[in-house]
Structures are given as structure tokens and as C-alpha cells.
Amino acid sequence: MVTTLLSLEGVGKTFPSGTVALRDVRLDVRPGSVHGLVGANGAGKSTMIKVIAGAHAPTAGTMRWKGEEARWRNPGAARNAGIATIMQHVPLAPALTVLENVFLGSPGPWRLQRGRRAELDRLLDRVGYAIDPDAEVADLAIGERQMVAILQALATGAELVVMDEPTASLADAERQVVFDVVRRLSAQGTAFLYVSHFLDEVLDLTDQVTVLRDGTVVESGATAAYDEDRLVQAIVGRDLLAAERRAPTPVETGRPPLLTVRGLDSPAGVHEVSFEVRPGEVVGLAGLLGSGRSEILHAVYGADPRARGEVLVDGRRVRRRPRAAVAAGMALVPEDRNAQGLVGAFPIWKNISLPDLCSLASGRALPREGAERRRAVRAIEDLGIVCPGPDAAVTELSGGNAQKVVFGKWLYGGARVFLLDEPTAGVDVGAKADILDLIRGFTAESGAVLIVSSEFEELLAVATRVLVIREGRVVAERAAHETSEEELLMLANGFDGGGAPDAD
Ligand SMILES: Nc1ncnc2c1ncn2[C@@H]1O[C@H](COP(=O)(O)OP(=O)(O)OP(=O)(O)O)[C@@H](O)[C@H]1O
């Protein structure tokens, strides 16, 4: 009997640029186990997954699949052997149906749907999930798409499913569905390699865990032997007071508001939203996925041309255009930082100064390279960007570190009103704490922050006040020190503090 499905022995990966992403890595994945893989941004998780999935060839060591040495020539070879990889941004075909997507990677004439339908029924039965086979993937919620990706992996007969942050953009209920399916399938013998920055998930779901730091394995063993503190210690190499609640910074209520929003309304799902943010305040928007929280930020920033209502900075009305918002001192860090994009051909320093070349130019026609570079060095330091230096190409950064560069683009341009949409999504625990500190820093300098986060614990750690958003409306307001995660969750779900549904 095979006791190890996949093993890595002394595996290394050095990129042509000279970056050593993996060094002497050892890993054993047993059949039917759920193996967690954790590590800071840039620790080497994606590189390891890509080696396992046949997308990168290792430059040292040996990989074995069911005891035999495996040298995948390409991802197809790994897939045929029984390894399916589900990357974070699920590459499904949106114009095709669920049925068509599930069998997209399977050999044979998948358009002959009769047999496929029965096969999909069997798969759905196996995972204990229901979905309309004829629904178009474009119409599905993110959680449902994730399920289609899992079904796709199973349809190829995978014995090992590698999941890269599968729950990063999922709401709580959708996470539970993914967890249930992972548990059920592992009980039936499918193994999982589960990469996540959510340590509570890893502790809850996995039975083995491996911690990567700077490309090497620093811990590996039964998950039961770990708690969150020990994992954090192993990941960042030091003790960390993550998402610690601080006493709220006193805000002088006598001061006039820095940001005023009146009667904001948009067909995108924003209804009669009015609020104020004073200098020194961090106001959190707490809502479930689809509640309209991001749409509110976009409308405030003038990025939603259909929005109506008034936005004032320092008492002066701002025209509803992003350019006018920037001129008035606003900065938006959007949730979809991938689509926002980095210029791949530019090094880190040029990317960071991109939105703000005018102030760096200081009256000259061309920006000053020295000032641009200093700004990049500061961002690398403040945000803990793992890279060889400001000249590194952004294409060579790990996912989380690329996110930090995008974040850095908006930080240092002299903005006073920050609109932050999920500022810590995809970043590791250490960087999370650094980013929260930076946010506190803006307000210490009399800035104002409006922040959206799916993690209510994080909102409460950084915000002075929280507005609860549901169906595009502000349905409740709480001082951060007078509420709890549980209460916010109840309110966001449409229950008042007493547990009864709100009267709408
Ligand atoms: N194509 C590449 N060329 C050169 N260096 C690379 C390349 N891809 C990744 N690296 C480097 O390899 C190291 C490991 O990156 P990797 O993407 O594996 O990290 P990660 O643990 O997945 O991080 P994250 O949590 O941010 O996704 C980083 O220093 C990164 O800059």
C-alpha cells in the first residue's frame, strides 16, 4: 500500500534571475489527507505549487508520485497523472454552462452531453452539492464558481487537488460549503494541498501542515500540534500581535468633517447613503459580499458615472470624477488590484510613483528619479515588500508582494482621504499588522479613512466607527469599542441586536 502520494525530497528552484525561491524542500502528502501549506508573502508557496503542477521544473531535488520519480514535462503531464490544481483566479469559461465547464479538461467529445450529465450527477452526489448543470458560469456567484472548479478537478479523476487560497473572496457561508466538500472528499480518499493565509481555516480543516519561510520548510507536522500563535511564530519568525484592538484614538468631534457624503444613490446598488468622516477618524464599512460596500467607495470616488448625490472634502463639493477626487485629496485602493494592474515592464520604483508623477516632478517637466526611488525604498520598508530592491521587475514578485506594490502606489501621494477596499486581502499575517499600523498612521496625521473589509475582526481593530451596510444602505452605526464581531455579523445579515429580523 502506498503511504505517500506525493513527496518532495530536497527540491530547489532557482529562477534565471538568480532568485532562490525554494531550497532543499521536503514534503510528504498522504492519500486522503488535507495538507495545509502556509508562509508569508514571497515564502515560495506558489512556486512550490507550480513545481508540483508541472508549470515549473525544479532545479534541484526529486519529486515522487506514488513512489515513482516524477518529472512533469508540462502541466498536462501532472494532470494526467492525477494532480489537479485550482488557482486563485478560477479560469472558467464564463460563456459556457456548468456542465460544459466541468468537462472542459476531460478527454473525449464533451459535447455529447448525455453521458456527461449522468457523470455530473454522480459527481454532485459524491460532493453532496446541488447546482443547475445548464446555468451559465457568468451568472454564478463566486462561491458557486469555486465549486465548478472543484467539480472540474474531480472530473479529471484527480487524486490530489491543490488549492491556492480557495476562500480568498468567499463569504462565510460559501467557505463552509468548500470546507464541507473538502472534508467529504478527503474521507473518500482524495488528498488536498491547501494554501491559505487564513490560519483559523488551516487549523480547522487540515490534518497536516507545512510552514515555508524564505523558500525552506521551517516546520511540518500534525496540525493538532499547532495553535495560531505557534503558526504565526513559524511564518514570520517572530512573535506578532496581529489585529490587536487598540484603544480608539480620540477624535475631536468639534472639528468639521473632512469627508461628507450626502444622499449618495446609484443604480449599481447604493441607496440614500449619507455619512461624515472627521479628521483622525477611520470609519469601517461592514457588510457581506454583494451588500454594496465596494460600490459605495466607488461612488464616493466618482468612479461610478451613474451615481447621484453630494461628496464634499473639507466642505468643498467635489465633482463626480476620479480626477476631481484625486485633486481634492482622495485616494482609492480598489479591491481588484490585479485588474488595476502593474506595468510589468517597469521596475517597482516606477510603478509606485506612477499615479503621482506631478508632485514628484516638483515644478520640472520630468519627475526626479531620486525622489521616485526614495519613495519606493520607503514603500518597501513600510509594507515589507519581499524583493531584491526597488529595481526588481514587478513580474518577478510573489502575488502578495505585487499587491503591496499596488497599495504603495496610492499611499504616498499626499492624499488625505483614503478609500480602502480590502487593503489586506492576499497579504500575510505579518504584513497585515504593518498595513493596519500604516492606516492608523494616516489618521494620526489628520487624514480620514473609509475602509471595507470582509474580516470584521480587522475592522474593529482599526476603525473608530463602523457603518453596517446591507442592500446598499447604511442600516446601523456603532462605535467600534461598543460593538463586537458577532453583533456586526447579525446586523449585516439583517438581524437587529435582539435577534429579530429588521423591519424594512
Ligand atoms: N517568475 C519569477 N522570476 C523570478 N522570481 C520569481 C518568479 N516567481 C516568483 N519569484 C520569486 O520567488 C519567491 C517566491 O515567490 P512565490 O510566488 O512562490 O511566493 P508565495 O509564497 O506564493 O507568496 P504570496 O503569498 O505572496 O503569493 C519570491 O521572492 C518571488 O519574488
Automatic annotation (TrEMBL):
Molecular function via GO: ATP binding; ATP hydrolysis activity
ABC transporter domain boundaries: 6-239, 254-496
InterPro entries referenced in this protein's UniProt entry, alphabetically: AAA+_ATPase (IPR003593), ABC_carbohydrate_import_ATPase (IPR050107), ABC_transporter-like_ATP-bd (IPR003439), ABC_transporter-like_CS (IPR017871), P-loop_NTPase (IPR027417)
SUPFAM superfamilies assigned: P-loop containing nucleoside triphosphate hydrolases
Record gene name: rbsA
Protein name in the entry: Ribose import ATP-binding protein RbsA
Superkingdom of origin: Bacteria
One Pfam family hit: ABC_tran
Keywords: ATP-binding, Nucleotide-binding, Repeat, Transport
